[in-house]
Specification:
The complex is a heterodimer of chains A (about 230) and B (about 350).
Chain A lengths: L3 H34 L5 H13 L2 H12 L4 H8 L9 H27 L2 H8 L4 H12 L1 H16 L3 H5 L11 H10 L3 H31 L5
Chain B lengths: L1 E10 L2 E10 L3 E5 L6 H9 L6 E6 L2 E5 L2 E2 L7 E4 L11 H10 L10 H7 L15 H14 L4 E5 L7 H17 L4 E5 L2 H7 L2 E6 L2 E7 H5 L13 E12 L4 E6 L2 E6 L8 E7 L3 E4 L10 E12 L5 E8 L2 E8 H7 L6 E6 L3 E2 L2
Parallel strand pairs in B: 3-9, 3-10, 7-8, 8-9
Antiparallel strand pairs in B: 1-2, 1-4, 4-5, 5-6, 10-11, 12-13, 12-15, 13-14, 15-21, 16-20, 17-18, 17-20, 18-19
Helix pairs in contact in B: 2-4, 4-5
The chains are: A mainly alpha (about 230), B alpha+beta (about 350).
């Protein structure tokens, strides 16, 4: 049913979702932590910027990323100069795009989870001789694990369905930037509804299985008394 | 051996301005109405609040002064907060280990088994906090603080969130702690009962300032403080069990100014006991009245008088050979039997509460 090209597109999609989710979780953690702890005035501006990808059309996001990361863009040119190469039309470019695209879906659950833990338990940990890093790793992180779970699932699922940003960043190179959503679009453009169907249905089934698994795990976590 | 603390702190409308020297041992109660700055003072001592101008040294070790601020995790202290503050992702034992593991082996001076036994928490260790009652959680929290081998134990209204039955359940454990461990404790409370029962020394805070401080026996008998205006105003007397009377099921406690009969107690003769005598339970007579049902009679001299909370009453401070006592009598009686400083009376004590 699925052509080798379609399988490749699926593989690129999964790889993109996995890589950007992992990187995003790691990089968004300090940001979410800072937002949850700070009373700085700049906080509201940072929160607005983090939420921006949620409201902007993906094409706007993709357009500016193309300008930014392309060979003549401020970031792309620097990367060219130091020999890494610009990021437009590359898998790395898609990862950067996906991370920005899914940023609010990771930062917000993490920030909420950190805020829900409150300051009291961190103070208690400090009085029990735990250093700031120690407190973060042994109290804040474990108590925010539900937030991490939500953030990871949202980022992964959101990236699976990404289209606008990718197409603007030049996402049609087989094996490199052509993801499943682009491949489906190509099939429909070519009036090959059979192939479009096969790929689309695969995505539907995969997403459904993934989400069912997530909800099942989530429920089991609750019943064994894993804390909020 | 002392705790020297000087803090100046502005938080919105509230201003804390405290300069105290506290005993480096025993229980010091920090007493005051809500908003008096009790918890803020405790947080300053813990290092959870950073006073712009602050000096703190605990038994010779400087924790804060100009240009030095030891962060909380570097201070060898233990804190027990009002509400449950156990780590919900750890079992009882996991909570206990948290501080213990972070205490250098050379500094550990509190034994796991002893604490577990003292606080009766062995059955609670495998359980998660959300399956424990409020009283059980506070016992774990106490044990956790102790196992970090603190040189100063800070308790911020540890019983305030518990109902009367749970309070009664925890108080004996707190008493055992004060007898067993030498570490000084700062005990924030607005409960006079807890002060009378646990404290050796009392700091009275009003509006962010220290109104008065001193040994608890002396403080509770002072008429110039708000303490004497409370309905349950009264003194504590540290006495020694003198004898037991098997026939009448009584025990005699002796103190420098006389002796008191109480219901037969379990402690053997020679044991120290603290009891509390409320001002409203003390009446004055000129003659020693043997024809009364009241067994406790103590001779004392009137030191001073002060208005009581109600205009019908007057507070009388008396001295029984060095032991201060308070009586609350009506103004009418005061006029009728001429209660004046320097006069001697017999005190009829209707009720004596054994505290510990």
């Amino acid at each position: 049913m699925l052509s080798p090209d379609d399988l490749t597109a699926l593989w690129v999609t999964l790889k993109l979702a996995a890589v950007s989710t992992v990187l995003l979780i790691v990089l968004a953690t300090p940001l979410a932590w800072w937002l949850s702890q700070t009373r700085a005035r700049g906080r509201v501006l940072v929160e607005a910027v983090v939420t921006l990808p949620l409201v902007l059309p993906p094409t706007v996001l993709g357009f500016y990323l193309l300008l930014l990361l392309g060979p003549k863009g401020p970031v792309g040119a620097v990367l060219e100069d130091i020999g890494i190469g610009h990021l437009a039309f590359s898998f790395s470019g898609l990862v950067v795009g996906s991370m920005i695209y899914s940023l609010p879906f990771v930062v917000q659950p993490l920030q909420n989870a950190f805020a829900a833990t409150g300051t009291r338990l961190l103070e208690v940990a400090a009085t029990l001789r735990a250093s700031p890093l120690d407190r973060f790793l042994t109290v804040a992180l474990p108590l925010a694990r539900r937030g991490y779970f939500t953030a990871a699932v949202l980022a992964f699922a959101h990236t699976l369905g990404e289209f606008g940003v990718i197409i603007m960043l030049g996402g049609n190179i087989p094996g490199e930037t052509r993801v499943a959503s682009i491949a489906i679009y190509n099939h429909v453009e070519a009036l090959d509804y059979g192939s479009a169907h096969a790929l689309a249905l695969t995505l539907v089934v995969f997403s459904l299985v993934l989400l069912t698994l997530v909800y099942a795990l989530n429920r089991r976590g609750q019943s064994v008394g894993v804390p909020r | 051996m002392s705790i020297d603390a000087r803090f100046c702190l502005q938080r919105g409308e509230f201003h804390l301005d405290v300069d105290v020297t506290l005993p480096g041992e025993g229980v010091t109660a920090v007493f005051g109405a809500s908003g008096a700055g009790k918890s803020t003072l405790l947080r300053c001592v813990a290092g959870l609040e950073r006073a712009a101008q602050g000096v703190l040294s605990v038994n010779g070790e400087v924790w804060q002064r100009e240009g030095l601020f030891l962060p909380v995790h570097r201070r060898p202290l233990g804190v027990v907060f009002q509400e449950s503050s156990l780590f919900p992702h750890l079992t009882g034992a996991g909570n206990l280990r948290f501080g213990l593991q972070r205490t250098p082996i050379g500094e550990r001076c509190v034994d796991w088994d002893e604490v577990v036994q003292l606080l009766g928490i062995a059955p609670l260790l495998p359980r998660y906090p959300d399956s424990l009652s409020g009283g059980e959680r506070q016992r774990i929290a106490l044990a956790r603080a102790l196992l970090a081998s603190p040189q100063l134990l800070l308790l911020d209204e540890p019983l305030a969130a518990l109902d009367e039955a749970r309070k009664a359940e925890i108080l004996p454990f707190l008493e055992r702690l004060r007898t067993r461990f030498a570490m000084p404790m700062l005990y924030v409370t607005h409960s006079m009962r807890e002060v009378a029962r646990l404290a050796d020394y009392l700091v009275l805070l009003e509006g962010g300032r220290v109104r008065a401080q001193g040994p608890v026996q002396e403080m509770l008998s002072r008429l110039d403080l708000s303490l004497a205006a409370a309905d349950d105003a009264g003194v504590v007397i540290d006495a020694v069990v003198a004898e037991h009377d098997a026939q009448w099921h009584l025990s005699r406690l002796s103190f420098p100014g006389g002796s008191l009969w109480v219901s037969r107690c379990a402690e053997p003769p020679g044991e120290r006991l603290r009891c509390r005598v409320l001002a409203r339970d003390v009446s004055l007579t000129r003659e020693r009245n043997e024809q009364s049902s009241i067994v406790n009679l103590v001779a004392a001299e009137v030191v001073e008088l002060a208005p009581a909370a109600s205009p019908a009453h007057v507070m009388v401070r008396l001295d029984a050979q060095g032991t201060p006592l308070l009586a609350r009598i009506t103004r009418q009686s005061q006029a009728r039997i001429a209660v004046q400083p320097g006069e001697c009376f017999w005190l009829q004590i209707k009720s004596v509460a054994l505290l510990r």
